Amino acid sequence: MLHTGRVPLTDDPTDTLTVRLRVKRYNPEVDRKPHWQHFTVEGMGRSDRVLDVLHQAKWFQDGSLSFRRSCAHGVCGSDAMVVNGENALACQVLLADAGDDITVEAIRGLPVVKDLVVDMAPFFAQYRSVLPWLITGAEDPGYGERRQSSAERQRFDDTTKCILCAACTTSCPVFWTNGSYVGPAAIVQAHRFIFDSRDAGAAERLDILGDRSGVWRCRTAFNCTNACPRGISVTEAIQEVKRVILADRV
Questions:
Q1: How do residues 86-119 score in pLDDT, each as one tens digit?
Q2: Crossing angle for the helix pair 202-209 and 234-247, to the nearest 10 degrees
Q3: Of 118, 136, 166, which residue is a domain's last?
Q4: Are 81 and 180 found together in one domain?
Q5: Alpha carbons 223 and 186: distance in angstroms, whole number
Q6: Are residues 132 and 192 in the same domain?
Q7: Same domain, yes or no: 185 and 237
Q8: Would 102 be classed as within a structural domain?
Q9: How many angstroms separate the CA atoms of 46 and 34, rounded?
Q10: β-sheet bridge partners, residue 35
């Protein structure tokens, strides 16, 4: 179906917003440096999201505007960006909260490919460095199960919620200035397996995170916890990993 106009997501068709959208744009093929572009988007509803505003700007005003999005329901994490100065998923921020004057720019600390699209390769390289997969022991359960109690599962439940959107890592001042720091997201992923009773690779991961580019780079600014769209206690997870390294036990 062709999009012929905006239908506001509101019960009252007269309750619409005219949104002033400011986007930080950069195309390395033609631009020497980033610049701001302004859009005026009419007919938006208060229950619309920042992502909806970006869609309207791209579909009806400037098709060259570039940003990532996929599920549009806060699950894939692909539309992480800086909205009004704070890291967020564009598909989660309602206009009722963001208002009608919105500034959007790419997440910080990663190279900008174009406009709101960043190169995620350094982020995923740090993610892979902490061995974010189940490492089992020599015992093979065969056709059986690796059993785990509810209490054992609960021990790492919070950090299983990570969707690798990079909102936490790119909100971290240490990550902005030190590209070798593994970052909050990688530590969260390591935490998920370090405290998994079925895993046998905790010692190896703790050696990696105990290195100079690991958890000790964290300055406990809490930016990562505030930025997480899934509500993960990121700073607490980092502190737990620190305590385990100091105690030399899980």
A1: 999 999 999 999 999 999 999 999 999 999 999 9
A2: 100
A3: 118
A4: no
A5: 15
A6: yes
A7: yes
A8: yes
A9: 30
A10: 25
* Beta carbons within 8 Å of 33's beta carbon, 6+ residues apart: 26
Q: Which pLDDT band holds residue 76 (cuts at 50, 70, 90)?
A: very high
Measure the CA–CA gap between 159 and 143, rounded to whole angstroms.
28
- Sorted by sequence, the CB contacts under 8 Å of residue 151 that are 6+ apart come out as none
Would you say 150 and 157 are in contact if contact means Cβ atoms under 8 Å apart? Answer: no
Give 117-132 pLDDT, tens digit per residue: 999 999 999 999 999 9
C-alpha R_g of the chain = 21
Residue range(s) defining the domain that contains residue 96: 17-118
For 151, other C-beta atoms within 10 Å of its C-beta total 8
Confidence at residue 36, expressed as pLDDT on a 0 to 100 scale:
98
One domain, residues 156 and 190 = yes
Contact present, 123 and 185 (Cβ < 8 Å): yes
Strands 17-25 and 101-105: parallel
The DSSP bridge partners found for residue 114 are 117
**85 Cβ contact partners less than 8 Å away, ≥ 6 residues apart:** 103
Residues 43 and 94 in one domain: yes
Lookup: tokens for 40: 């005026």
The answer to whether residues 107 and 159 belong to one domain is: no
